[in-house]
Amino acid sequence: MKNLIVTAAGLSTRFEGLKPKWMLTHPSGRWMIVEALSSVDFSVIDKVYFGFLQEHLDKYNCIDGIKLCFKELGIEDKAELVALNSPTDNQPHTVYEVVKQANVKGSILIKEVDNYFRFDVASQYFKDTTDNFMTYFDLNNTTSINPSNKSYVKFDTDENITDIVEKRVFSSTFGCGVNFDLRKNEPYSIYSKFDFDVPVGKGEMGTIGDTWDRYYVRVLEMRESAKIIRQACAELPGGDVHAALPKKIRPNAGEVYGRYESARGDVGFYIMSNGKNIPMRVKMRSPAFCNLSVLSEISEGWMISDVIAILGSLDIVLGEIDR
Question: Residue 136 is inside which H or E element, if any?
Fold first, then answer.
């Protein structure tokens, strides 16, 4: 019996009262739980157990929505919802409670609901084994990661996990060593027509991602920007440069999330409309505000005078963080 246990019973320790992560809307428009499981090869799995917190099911009245997620994933016939009456202490505790409550028999694979990874290797191994196992990927062995996998573990000298650091910073500031750019990874506008590189820090004068690395990435970015401008000027069509747009826009009722690559990273806008020309709600994701959140982490152990250079390398805009 091959079982997949999906742990979705966590409570946010940083944002009390926030909806659980699996209910958050991914930029694709789908619930995060669907996005996180979209690459799983369910053909090698006999049963899928979802460990939810009963408190969330009652508060958000979301059982019908969960069933739609099962249908979208094509697992209605093998999915089982396990409602846990009390919050668990951590993921292993959630797995234990699901196994005990659902009387799970056979080998198990564990999957979180707030990250995404390719399942090819895992599914083949799971198909051929009767044991339990865990998959992991060493970010030091790649130049490109999916920023959705935003949990990073810290180890002590004996390689025991001492802390899990969660950051959501994807920009040139964090891009020293991480090859990610919305214009390349999720092209929009006409960026797919341009030939340009995504500068990545290499630790040439010290450690990957240090202050000098962040500075040099910005220098390289200016060169790539000049390259894009030259290509755009060469292909610039004739005619009016002003687009014919209405002065007022009345979008259909609903919600949408859009984002683009700015000089300091990922800028996002969440807009909720009731069909009128004034939105019901607008929320902006500020890259400078997010980038600033890593200051305490990267400044630890340095002198106060060093913080000036470290803060400068983050290149924040005060208007974005004054909120």
Answer: none
